[in-house]
Amino acid sequence: MSDAAHCARCDAVCCRLTVVLQPEDAIPEHLTTHLDSGLHVMARDDEGWCVALDGARMNCGIYESRPLICRRFVMNGPYCRQVRDDYAAGEDRSIPLRTL
C-alpha cells in the first residue's frame, strides 16, 4: 500500500465502523439511531454503510458537519490502514479494496 493518501481512491471502509456520537456533534436526527446499549450513533443502511455516505462518490455527504470521531480519523494513518487490512482479510466483504 502506498504511503500517500488519495481521496479519489479511498474505499471509505471507515464508513462501516460504528460512529459513536458526542454531545457536541450536531447531526440531524434522521441520520442517527440508538443502540440497545443506549449509545447514540450514526445510522447505517441495509448494507452496513453509514447513512451519510454518498455511495456514488464514496465520500461523506455531511463532511462539513461530520461527527468529531470522523474528524479525528486520519486517512491512511495507522488505524485507517488497520481497518482496511481487517476488511480485506474478512470473508464477507462486498467491495474490493483499491490501493491508496
Features:
alpha+beta, two-stranded antiparallel sheet, 4 strands, disordered C terminus
User: What proportion strand?
Assistant: 5-15%
Q: Classify the secondary structure makeup into a structural class.
A: alpha+beta
Number of helices: 2
Care to count the β-strands? 4
Q: Please give the radius of gyration in angstroms.
A: 14 Å
Strand order of the largest sheet: 1-2
Shape: globular
- Give a quick account of the main beta sheet: strands, pairing sense, barrel closure: 2 strands, antiparallel
**Which residues form runs of ≥5 with pLDDT under 50?**
96-100
Fraction of residues in helix: 10-25%
| Number of domains as seen in the coordinates | 1
Quick check: average pLDDT? Answer: 82
Would you spell out the secondary-structure blueprint of this structure?
Layout: E1 32-34, E2 40-42, E3 53-54, E4 59-60, H1 68-72, H2 78-89
Antiparallel strand pairs: 1-2, 3-4
Describe this structure in words.
This protein is of the alpha+beta class and 100 residues long. It has one domain. Helices cover 17% and strands 10% of the residues. The chain has a two-stranded antiparallel sheet with strand order 1-2. The chain has a two-stranded antiparallel ribbon with strand order 3-4. Strand 1 and strand 2 form a beta hairpin. The C terminus is likely disordered.
